[in-house]
Amino acid sequence: MAFMRNSVLLLLALGATVPAAAQNFDSVQIRTVPLSSGLAMLMGAGGNMAVSWGSDGTFLVDDQFAPLTPKIVAAIGKLTQNPVRWVANTHFHGDHSGGNENFGTAGAIIVAHENVRRRMSTEQFSKLFNRSTPASPKVALPIVTFSDQVSFHQNGEEIAVFHVNNAHTDGDAIIWFKNANVVHMGDTYFKERYPFIDVDGGGSIDGIIAAADRVLSAIDNNTKVIPGHGELSNKAELAEYRNVMVAARDRGKKLIAEGKTLEQAIAAKPLAEYDGKWGTGFIKPDIFLRLIYASYGK
Fold this sequence. Notes:
Blueprint: H1 2-14, E1 31-36, E2 39-43, E3 49-52, E4 58-61, H2 69-77, E5 84-88, H3 94-97, H4 100-105, E6 109-113, H5 114-120, E7 124-126, E8 131-133, E9 144-146, E10 149-154, E11 157-163, E12 173-177, E13 182-184, H6 205-218, E14 224-226, H7 235-257, H8 262-268, H9 272-278, H10 285-295
Helix pairs in contact: 6-7
């Protein structure tokens, strides 16, 4: 029963498989976190966003849920009068791409990894939660896709967008604002929380670790790190997250090698020393261990 309760909390929090119409967004406020001149982080309900603005137009990273679009547009309107020209999705989940239809209808060009378009174009089924997510309308789909990386040059900023393999999903993109020294990691990084790994969507614990390693090798101690969920972060906190992920992966693999069933592994509480801090989000320790096992087909 505990797993079922936690699963419901997960679905409500992620919004990836719960229709937006079933949720109440009336009380949600969009919070703006300034990062540098012409760049800010936006927080509301769902995944964190980033917005870059200037004379070349407005570049938005992720767009949360469709009902929040007016609030997101209003928050951006306090920063610039230029409309959103580009929307880059870090992955396909609805709490990051739910506003695509609205922004696409308004004329924004949606950009994402090719697997994001592939998954959004067809119904997606989660074995873990026994739920289906219908295909998105055509206007919500990315119209520019890439397989490895793509760069944008606007507003005096170089924005590098690159794919990381099979991390949170199979279509994750990291968005690096090089001049501002800011990186948006999407849901490959949950600050101080166990992450949701969408194994059914192509994710894996090994990919989560590899994504963190790749970003850590490229940034410095002054880099501002935007997690998919949680407050603004930095290199030291990302490194701590990476180390916890490695410990969790290694302990999970050891239990698998010993022939322990998932139920036996959960009962052993292999992550007890981390659970007090990292298991307080919507991914509880038993769900996280279940996702590690699922990463290896167990």
